[in-house]
Specification:
With 193 residues, the chain is mainly α. It contains eight helices and no strands.
Length: 193
């Protein structure tokens, strides 16, 4: 039997907004509900309408997936904890007189640009209204912060005349964030069809 036009329209909204795996899973459930109502003796139009009423508006389903997106949760946690990690580094670098360290200005500029870009894409992931945008921005933001943390730890280890307890604390804060990103990002950013 051919799929009802209302069910097909609903599925098209899901496929346009969500990764194929998620869209197909929801569409499969919707199709099952439609078949259930057909078996109960409803007409094709009534069965399709009942199935859609059971699942809710397609746009609302998509928005639910966006709100619960793992990328959005990770981005929001990184945005909240970012000032703490950044503050640790600021205190450590000021106390260590980092402006006197032999770090090329281009490295300083690149790290500043990377930090700014990472914050922007994390903010995008945290508030985006499209699932794919949320996922992509979340991946980019995590990658950017991972590179910043690894670079900060490496630069301090390689260029600081001495590594004081403040720099060690900042490195621990960055290390903790690296572990969090590695653990959270693996399942959250797994490829979806």
């Amino acid at each position: 039997m051919a799929e009802h036009r209302l069910i097909q329209s609903y599925s098209n909204v899901l496929l346009a907004e969500l990764p194929a795996r998620l869209a197909e899973e929801v569409a499969g459930g919707l199709d099952d509900a439609n078949c259930k109502y057909l078996r109960q003796g409803l007409s094709q139009d009534d069965a399709a309408q009942a199935a859609i009423a059971e699942f809710g508006d397609a746009r609302a389903v998509v928005e639910g997936f966006i709100r619960s997106s793992p990328a959005r949760r990770i981005a929001r946690r990184l945005i909240v904890t970012g000032p703490v990690v950044g503050g640790c580094w600021a205190v450590a670098l000021i106390a260590g007189r980092a402006w006197e360290w032999p770090v090329p200005n281009v490295a300083r500029l690149l790290l500043g640009a990377l930090l700014t870009s990472s914050v922007i894409v994390l903010l995008t992931a945290a508030v985006a209204r499209r699932y794919r945008v949320t996922q992509r921005a979340g991946v980019l933001g995590c990658a950017g912060l991972t590179l910043i943390d690894a670079s900060a730890i490496t630069l301090v280890a390689a260029t600081a005349p001495t590594i004081g307890w403040l720099a060690a604390l900042a490195a621990c804060a960055s290390g903790s964030r690296l572990v969090f990103v590695a653990r959270a990002a693996r399942p959250a950013f797994a490829p979806s069809g």
